[in-house]
Design goal:
By secondary structure, the protein is mostly helical. The protein has three domains: about 110 residues, Fumarase/aspartase (N-terminal domain) (Fumarase C, Chain B, domain 1, Orthogonal Bundle), CATH 1.10.275; about 260 residues, Fumarase C, Chain A, domain 2 (Up-down Bundle), CATH 1.20.200; about 45 residues. It is built from 18 helices and eight strands. A two-stranded antiparallel ribbon has the order 1-2. A two-stranded antiparallel ribbon has the order 3-4. It has a two-stranded parallel ribbon with strand order 5-6. The longest helix has about 35 residues. It starts with a strand and ends with a helix.
């Protein structure tokens, strides 16, 4: 069996392939953040209060310039991670050593691949969560616009999938919007927990050097460093699970919206019409226009939840300290995020292009849908509710002439069909967008200073 010499030892080919797993492929998504983390680490090393200087300011600038070149190569898909590298960390170190000689060999001082991958994944998650929030707000705005445009169009409200009470298209659309707004809160909470820098924890136990962990945290635009160096690495996997948990809640909302679309676009309902470009045909039935996008979103919600549970299951029995099992969490983490974002991106234009069939919505009303409203009308006239309940149940024939449009116009209290507070939706969405703008600016400004 042949062997290969790597940066961290000589390994036989089969072991190298097995232990590297899919890192050579997956780590392509981490090249930029790995260079960013390395730039901060080298900057901090150049500022350490030791004599002689381990890395001078001039040397630091050479490293940062070389890292910028690697990032440029990555943007052009020209930076290659080799199997002998095993991962992005050693690929970057190999490249710097080839370019800078002994200076490149210094960059790993005071850190381990443990804290290196931990900071890479947190930087990756930081960017991904902000972009997910941006895509979520786009769908939220589409739902709000759809709801406001069709605010006064009656729609049967259902329980147990059976006709229940008069409702509206506006109420239906903004219910999904508000669900996603709450999901944004979950994403923001995950963002805050993720916004801690583990760099400098090394292999989990610190190093006998005067490193400045607060400095690297500031350089990378984190709100703070993780405090305990052992937890900094124990948090690996836990943090991915928390982020995926927030993503799975987004997918829960998207799956329910997709399910509604599948039901209400059936010919038996025909309440809504999806844009034709978001539907697919049949290989044998020429007339078919299938809601495949909605069906796939429903299935993908399960995949994201499975990714969350997969990471949870990987770490639930892990002893304290780094364990290689965590390598398997990376693919689940990236897949869960990418899946969530792809679903948000495709649902937004589909929502914008959806048409409402007012006639079919009105035709969906049968007299019994007004039973509860009539009972409450009798209550307002002085009849006890339970008496009114039984009276209406025995006299459903009295409900034949009620107008659905007039029925929903009577529901004006907070959050009812004609009591929707559009400023509420506008302000909550604006607050999320403001958070995205603020955090993006903070991160971008940190990077500008780091690579100035």
């Amino acid at each position: 069996m042949t062997k290969q010499k790597t940066t961290v030892g000589t390994i036989n080919d089969e072991t190298l392939t097995f232990t590297a797993g899919r890192d050579v492929e997956l780590d392509c998504a981490l090249i930029e953040v790995d260079c960013i983390g390395t730039a901060a680490h080298v900057t901090m090393l150049s500022e350490m209060p030791i004599r002689p200087k381990m890395i001078t300011k001039t040397e630091r600038n050479k490293v940062v310039k070389a890292l910028s070149e690697i990032m440029d190569q990555a943007h052009q898909n020209k930076f290659k991670i080799r199997l002998a590298d095993q991962d992005v960390h050693l690929a970057v170190e190999r490249t710097l050593t080839k370019k800078l000689g002994d200076l490149g060999k210094k960059i790993h001082t005071g850190r381990s691949r443990n804290d290196q991958v931990a900071v890479d994944l947190r930087l990756y998650a930081k960017q991904q969560i902000l972009e997910t929030l941006q895509e979520a707000t786009a769908l939220i705005l589409a739902l709000i616009s759809f709801g406001k445009k069709h605010e006064k169009i009656p729609m049967v409200g259902r329980t147990h999938m059976q006709p229940g009470m008069p409702s509206s298209v506006g109420l239906w659309a903004t219910a999904h919007a508000e669900s996603l707004l709450d999901d944004c809160v979950g994403l923001i909470n995950a963002y805050r927990l993720n916004d801690q820098c583990p760099l400098g924890s090394a292999a989990s136990y610190g190093v006998p050097l005067p490193i400045d962990r607060q400095r690297t945290s500031d350089l990378l635009g984190f709100s703070r460093p993780t405090h305990n160096v052992l937890y900094a690495n124990n948090g690996r996997g836990k943090m991915e699970s928390l982020v995926l948990g927030a993503m799975s809640q987004v997918m829960l909302s998207l799956s329910r919206l997709a399910q509604d679309f599948m039901i209400f676009t059936m010919p038996e309902f025909d309440y809504f019409k999806l844009p034709s470009e978001f539907c697919t045909g049949s290989s044998i039935m020429p007339q078919k226009s299938n809601p495949d996008v909605c069906e796939l979103i429903r299935a993908k919600a399960t995949r994201v939840k499975t990714a969350e549970l997969g990471v949870y299951d990987l770490i639930k029995g892990s002893p304290t300290g780094y364990n290689r099992d965590l390598q398997e969490a990376k693919e689940l983490f990236m897949e869960g995020i990418n899946t969530t974002r792809s679903c948000l991106r495709i649902l937004t234009p589909m929502m914008k292009g959806t048409k409402v069939n007012k006639n079919k919505l009105l035709a969906g009303f049968s007299p019994d849908v007004f039973a509860t409203d009539r009972a409450l009308e009798l209550v307002a006239q002085g009849m006890p509710f339970r008496d009114a309940y039984h009276y209406v149940k025995q006299h459903l024939e009295e409900l034949n002439q009620i107008d659905p449009a007039k029925a929903i116009q009577l529901k004006t209290h907070l959050g009812a069909p004609l009591g929707l507070d559009w400023d509420y939706f506008k302000n909550r969405t604006a607050a999320v967008k403001q958070m995205i703008k603020k955090e993006t600016a903070l991160f971008n400004n940190a990077l500008k200073k780091l690579f100035a």
